[in-house]
Structures are given as C-alpha cells and as structure tokens.
What we know:
heterodimer, A: mainly alpha, 2 domains, 10 helices, flat, B: alpha/beta, Rossmann fold, 6-stranded mixed sheet, 3-stranded antiparallel sheet
Amino acid sequence: MGEAEASGRSRAERFDRLARWLLPLLVVVAIVFGWHLVVVVNEIPPYILPGPGTVFATLVKDWPILSGALVNTLAITTLALIVATLGGVGLAILFSQSRLVEYSFFPIAVVLQVTPIVAVFPLINIYVDNTTAKLLICAWIVAFFPILSNTTLGLNSADRNLHALFHLYGASRWQTLRHLRLPAAMPYFLGGLRIAGGLSLIGAVVAEFVAGTAGFGSGLAFRIIEAGYRLNTARMFAALILISAAGVAIYLVLSLASHLILRKWHESAIGRER
Amino acid sequence: MAQAAQSIDPAASAEQPSAVVLGGVTKRFSNGTTAIADLDLAVRQGEFLSLLGPSGCGKSTVLRLVAGLIEPSAGTIRRPDEQNADRDIGFVFQEPTLMPWASAFTNVWLPLRLRGVSKRAARDRVMEALDGVGLAAFAGSYPRELSGGMKMRVSIARALVTEPRLLLLDEPFAALDEITRFRLNNDLLELWGRFGFTVVFVTHSVFESVYLSSRIAVMAARPGRIIRTLTVDEPYPRTDAFRTTPHYGELCNETSAALLLAMEEGRPA
Lengths: 274, 269
C-alpha cells in the first residue's frame, strides 16, 4: 500500500518534471506552426511577414553578420553589467558606512533611475565622443540601480544580535563589513544582479537604437534598424530572436551563479524535500 | 554526560571576591521607559547566578549592561579583577544567532578570527570547543542542517572558545523542547564545573533557575529591580535525580513565592 503510494507520488513527480519543459515547448511549436500557416494561407510576402522557415534560413545565411553583431551587443552588455556591479556595490558600501552619505546621494541615484534613458541619450551623445563609452554609460545608468538598492537593503539587514556579538568582540568596521554585512547582503545583491543583467542588455540595445545608424555601431539593434531600411524583414526577426536568446541566456547564467553561491545556506536555494 | 568532578559548595562562595559589581545602575531608554532603576548587584567569582523574573522586568537589560552592549544612564558597572574586561565575556543569546552562511567551525572560529587568529592557529581551540558541546563531528555542517538544540550548542561553543572568565546567557534554552533543555542544562553545568567561569543566566523558569543556580536574584518590573536574592544550598555536581528530591520541591516553592511577589509588585497601577 505504502509502496504503491510512493510509486504513485514519484510518477506524479516525474510527470510534473516532464510537463515543466514539455508544455512550454509545445506552446512554442504551436505558435511557430500558426505563424507558418498564417503566412502560407494568406500568401503574405516575406518583406511584410516572413515565415518561420525564412527567418531560420536568414539566421543561418546571415550568421557571419549577425554573430558579429551579437558579440558586439553582448560585449557592451557584459561590460555594462560589470561596471554596474562595481558601481552599485561600491556605492552601497559607501552608503552603509555613513547615513549622511546615503541621505545625500540616494535621491540622485533615484533620479538617474526614473529618468527614461532615451531622453538622456541625446545629451550623452553631445558630450561623449567614443561610441563604446556612449553605449556603456547608457547601459550602466539603466543597470546599476537595482544592484545599488538591493545591496543597500542587504547590507542593513544583518541580524541585530550578530551585530551585538561583533561589537562585543571588538570587531573593526572593516571586519563587520567583511564577515557580517557583505555575506548577509549576498542574497539581496544576487537578486539585484539578476534584474541588472536583463536591464544592461536593454540599456545596450536602447542605446544602439537611439544612437541610430550615424556611421557607427554594429550591434544587433543597429542591424535591426539597418535591415528595416532595406525591408529585410527576415533579418529583423533573426536579430530579434538573437536578442531574446541573449536575454534568456544572461538570466540563466546569473540564476545558476546565484544558486551555486547560495545553495549551502540560503532558503531560496535549498530544494524542498518530500 | 559525565558530571563535574569538582564539587562546589554554594554556601562557601559567599566569601568569593566579586566578578562584576553593579552600583545604583539605572537604564532609561530614549523612548522614556525606565528598564531598570537603582539596581545594586554583586556577582561573585565562579558562581552560577540566575536572574529570574517576569517578562519586561529588565533581566536582559542587566545582561546587556554587564556585557557593555549598552551604557547605563546612571550608576557604575565594574569588573574588579579583569584587566581587559570587555574582551573576556562570552554571550549566548536566546536565539542561536549563528551566521547562516558559515559552517559550525567558522561560526565558532569567529571570536578568535576577529582577534586576528588564523584558521590554522585557531583549529585546535575551535575543535576543542565543539568537542566540549559534543559536536566535533558536525564542524563542517551549516546551521540549517542542525537541530535547534545543536545550534544552541554551537552558540555555547562559540561563547566558550575564548575561554572567558564570565559567561552571560540570555534565556538560551527558552525555545527548546524539554528533553533537549534538560540535556543542555546538564551540559552547561558540566562545562561550568570543568572551567570554573562565572555565569549570569537569565531565565523566566523557576525550575530551571533552581536546578542550575547557586544563587537566584528575583526581579520585579516597572521599574526593573531585584526584590529578593535566594541561595540554592544544594551542592554540585547536580544530576537529574536532584529534580525529584523533596529539597528541590521546597526550593522551587520558595522561589515561586518570590516570583509571585515580584509579579504582584510589578503590576501596573
């Protein structure tokens, strides 16, 4: 009886695991097939709406151009994420050391965050010459805030009694930061990092768009604009698919990193038993 | 667990010099509440003193004042014999208060680490402290992998790793089940008998205070003060058999009566 129950439960579990990746896959297949049908039945010309087969063929055919663009976009995104992490964590640590510094500068960080980057970019365009620097500044402004605000929250959320204990043993400011506040902030920081990963991609793409085709840039967004001017709709779709895939990949990599770092101790990373 | 080889006679400790002396100590918090008022208390060296009282009577405040975690509003707190008093205290909180991101070993290493002792240099002392609470085999375990009682043992090992002369415990076993609690009571007495440090133990349990203490200070609330001090004249080592003796019952009755009086006096007007 008990055994039958157990095997029933494990069968349900296996089904659950299967359904988790099978169902979204089926939905994607259905959408692609529907798209194909719409194109074929209505005889839509490819410069208006290319079918999925055409898009895939373009992806393969234009791979030399698109892969270069992908590398460029990913390079800006990665660089922006690194700078956003350094800036966000650095500012958060600075804020945590002095309330006055936090009071002084946090509102400015909020202003940077809430101002749409598209509106700021023309100004950056005037003052900064180097293209890479332009895109980087743009992506950084978008990405650093979740890291800053999450890490600030995390640094202030260490257990009060642990703080008392550090005080009792005469811990220095640096020791308290290193051994108590930074580890306590880690889950918060990683949560912010996951958001910032997606945002730095968005920042990089938006910056490329706003920068337009003014004689520079060869990222995916630039390729989309360029293909748009040439009515190469299939290549626009192909580039778009690559941007989405890049976003998903960034999210997965950061989630995996987060899991590996927290798996020993944090509730969020501990698998539920039974 | 083996009981302390050394036998301690509570009555004899009256002549011991003081480990901590509180003179006319008042603590007012910034919100206006007077947690304790004009409190005098001398903790004798090597004794096991319990602070017993209803919640809100300021027992924990006394402990935090002695630890130097908070400053008194008035009065003095002295540690007559200690050169470097603030570095010679072990503190155990009501919660285990372990760092969840660190193994039991790293948690116990913390007090030494903060004094600049390297992992290699600290290893023997940390393992000894863990062994003292029966957890040597769990040095690599993370707090979430340990039971409530085991976490509290790690917390005690951490407090003892610096070999403090004074151990302060703030209702450390309140959240544990009774069986675990009894076992930890015995372990604490065994460690106390072995190392001979001074203990100030905060509790709201009459039975626990009588079982453990050589002396009990009963506190009343509003404002927090000591209304009576009782000596528990049962020699150490004490075992679970003590819990079933008539003498234990008498002592509990007497202590309960004092606590009842404390609660009457501390009732809001």
